[in-house]
Write a structure and sequence with these properties.
globular, 59% helix, mainly alpha
């Protein structure tokens, strides 16, 4: 990655982020912990929002801000009971998704950066004690 390029550009932009997010959301509807958290089974809307957030965070277009305003992730997730089990499951499904993407599309250094961010994000969203 050159000094002027972003992770978003380095890994192929929106198509790669779409693979990450769609791989994750393919697993969610049948998941016993995460599936029920989606209001009115809003999987398509949630998929768009996660795609916008990740693309924007990693240097892509500011689609989240344009469509939803500031991310404020803790505030947006306050009404969902996110305990350690939900945290762990979210990370498991996200890891499955990342693992399904070949290394040519998502080289290891970028995969590790994204994984580290996923861990930080998941930890930040815990709002319910065991």
């Amino acid at each position: 990655m050159s000094a002027n390029s972003s992770v978003y550009e380095a890994i192929g932009g929106m198509p790669t982020f779409r693979k990450i997010v769609s791989g994750f959301y393919k697993q969610v509807p049948e998941d016993d912990i995460l599936g029920p958290m989606y209001p009115d089974q809003d999987f398509a809307g949630a998929e768009d929002r996660l795609l916008w957030f990740l693309a924007q965070y990693w240097g892509g277009p500011a689609l989240f801000n344009e469509n939803r305003g500031s991310p404020r992730m803790r505030m947006r997730h306050m009404n969902y009971p996110i305990d350690m089990a939900a945290h762990d499951r979210w990370l498991k499904l996200m890891k499955n998704s990342l693992d399904d993407i070949d290394e040519e599309t998502l080289p290891m250094p970028y995969r590790q950066m994204i994984w580290q961010h996923m861990n930080q994000l998941a930890g930040m969203l815990i709002n319910k004690a065991p």
